[in-house]
Amino acid sequence: MRRTARPLTGTALAVAAAALAAAPAYGAPAGDLEVSPSPVAPGGQVAVRTAACGDGGTATGDASAVGAGSLGLAPGPQEREATGRFRVPPSAQPGTYEITATCTGNGRRVTGDLVVTLTSGREQVHPRGSVKTGVGGALGPDPVQTAAGVATLAVAAAGGTWLLHRRARGDGI
């Protein structure tokens, strides 16, 4: 038992070390297209940037998957990154869209994902109003219908009591 435990432990450690070495660092890896903010609501402004084009590089971006068309990426405040902006159309549907950019100097193509949601993610939506179940309630929206329902129940209760009283006396129905 002890002889098989050591090779299995060694194998498990080797697999874990390989997985950690392959995991990307925090943020977008160099060479990818960073899209922010993500998620974004329809109508929101999105910034894209990449370091894949090199120092002072430019790129042509494509956001047509979400319906925004093409955009240009120019050297940003940090010369080693190309940056650009576009607006998500108000008619965009929720989902994940691939945004691409092609560097003009070296022809390298990079991609990033944009997540579109109905809300921006910063605000919480709380439900309002009543549920239309067809059952109604004691404090319904229409006081006339509530009064009619109460009167109907009172008449039914009085009639049932009267019939049970006659039956108990033996008068018949």
From TrEMBL:
- The signal peptide annotation in the UniProt record is 1-27
What keyword terms does UniProt attach to this protein? Signal
Q: What is this protein called?
A: Integral membrane protein
